[in-house]
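re: ur question from earlier - yeah i can do the single chain one, its not a big deal. heres the input i used so u can compare w yours
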Amino acid sequence: MITVRQTLPSTSLRISLREQGKEIGHAYLVEEAFRGKGLGKKIVREAIQEAKRQGCYKLICTGRDSKEEVHKFYHGLGFKVQGKEFRMEL
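and the output i got, formated as tokens:
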């Protein structure tokens, strides 16, 4: 089950993936009007700490090839480029 919840105040969306009632993944999207204010970094840093607390061994972040600002964002937080994603639109 996937759920989407808007945070208050309205600065981001939380997208959660649940299996058998347990959250197994989630993502955050910061609204454009609030970008550049450190909210995304705070969210990702907290997600990293929570993943460590829960014993996760890996975090994967994605960004489109054309989104250089997203690549810089993730690099700045310590993420490394590894591999490529392949898709097929049906």
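The first helix runs from residue 39 to 53. not sure if urs matches, ping me
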